[in-house]
Amino acid sequence: xxxxxxxxxxxxxxxxxxxxxxxxxxxxxxxxxxxxxxxxxxxxxxxxxxxxxxxxxxxxxxxxxxxxxxxxxxxxxxxxxxxxxxxxxxxxxxxxxxxxxxxxxxxxxxxxxxxxxxxxxxxxxxxxxxxxxxxxxxxxxxxxxxxxxxxxxxxxxxxxxxxxxxxxxxxxxxxxxxxxxxxxxxxxxxxxxxxxxxxxxxxxxxxxxxxxxxxxxxxxxxxxxxxxxxxxxxxxxxxxxxxxxxxxxxxxxxxxxx
Amino acid sequence: xxxxxxxxxxxxxxxxxxxxxxxxxxxxxxxxxxxxxxxxxxxxxxxxxxxxxxxxxxxxxxxxxxxxxxxxxxxxxxxxxxxxxxxxxxxxxxxxxxxxxxxxxxxxxxxxxxxxxxxxxxxxxxxxxxxxxxxxxxxxxxxxxxxxxxxxxxxxxxxxxxxxxxxxxxxxxxxxxxxxxxxxxxxxxxxxxxxxxxxxxxxxxxxxxxxxxxxxxxxxxxxxxxxxxxxxxxxxxxxxxxxxxxxxxxxxxxxxxx
Lengths: 258, 258
What we know:
The structure is a homodimer. Chain A is an alpha/beta fold. Helices cover 31% and strands 26% of the residues of chain A. Chain A contains nine helices and 13 strands. The first copy, chain A, has helices at 21-29, 37-40, 59-71, 89-99, 117-125, 145-157, 175-186, 211-214, 252-257, and strands spanning 5-10, 32-36, 50-54, 75-80, 108-112, 126-127, 133-137, 161-165, 192-197, 205-210, 223-227, 233-237, 240-245. Chain A has a five-stranded parallel beta sheet with strand order 3-2-4-1-5, sandwiched between helices. A five-stranded mixed beta sheet of chain A has the order 7-8-11-9-10, with helices on both faces. In chain A, strand 2 (32-36), helix 2 (37-40) and strand 3 form a beta-alpha-beta unit. The N and C termini of chain A lie far apart (63 Å). Chains A and B meet through helix 1, helix 4, strand 5, helix 5 and strand 6 of A and helix 1, helix 4, strand 5, helix 5 and strand 6 of B. Chains A, B: Residues 6-213 form the Tetrapyrrole methylase domain. Chains A, B: Pathway: Cofactor biosynthesis; adenosylcobalamin biosynthesis. Chains A, B: Keywords: Cobalamin biosynthesis, Methyltransferase, S-adenosyl-L-methionine, Transferase.
């Protein structure tokens, strides 16, 4: 039996033009594809490629299945949107690996990075992540809401740009509003907020709003939200959306005045 | 005169296998390449491609030059390693654009995202960014050191994974040590620290150390440092480096005990 392998692959934001050649090569080498059905649908069919589609929110079961296939000698690819290491499948695979059959530790397990949503959204808007920034998941499925708000308050007080993943879902309808209310206690009402939906896909929509307006904006599971720092700026343009960027510099005086 | 354009392109970590097709297409369409000399050297020569290499730490001058070329009708590509929006050229371009000729606001300016160093380093190590995380630049060339330490203390107290860009240079030899000392006041001595040097390049070197050992490790300008959260774990393996990952979950009890 040939030794099996498992690669966790980042497909990027959706457009194949953002799929790295390394990720494409790993997909081409795979015998089994494991992942959430909408991500699997992005990978073209070919003879001999076996697909194992699963629902959302069964990440560890999906990871165990992938590891078992690899242990049986298959070349397995677990696919994620964006980067697999950012609120996606890579951590689930290592959770399953650590808790599972000790033999799984001898498998060749690799991760292929991808363009994560905040990088794609930032590129579309300008350079909003130009200073220090953080990425927080607003989902309280896996951590208590009070941990989320404590973290959010800390990074807002420290004046980081904040990228919010998983801002909202049908089961979590109020969390984004609560997070924006908290942001409004640390940032001025004109602070730029970017709502980037489905960047790199045909239904892409990018909105740049002032924080005071963002509270009333529509968002969904496919939306990535970026809340600017106190220094984040808009460059208005005639007949086009403004550029949004965060300068690289922080002035001592600006900091003291915060 | 044809209308000029400017694209800020992320080359990724170095290996062409991490260059996205979108970035490759933008490079192929460019007439003028502007950037720090080592990044320009990654782009193959071709007839008609004009190179404008510059030294490090002249980002805004470089950006102004690129915008002036575009305003003169050229198709200009500004190249950065990694992602251009993460501690790289995109913010400098928008700083120059805002401060410069108002006509520059009518130029077609776009940004092509890339695999930034922390994603490449994380993928090599496992999934250390599997929970909430932040990216901080340790360079005090553009912001006061007390802002850097205040931000670092805040994100450490909030138990985020911390990716440190620009950790050290000949002109800034002590900042990384000071940052690791600060980390040691918030994290246990066994907390995993990843020192990822030149990921995706022939001289790539990845080290996973305990925080208590990391203080004495060598690092340089090409190193990206990731300090784990309190929950970040190692999976030991026989005859191979351990996997490093941060579980997606935060338990209420673990948080209370922090």
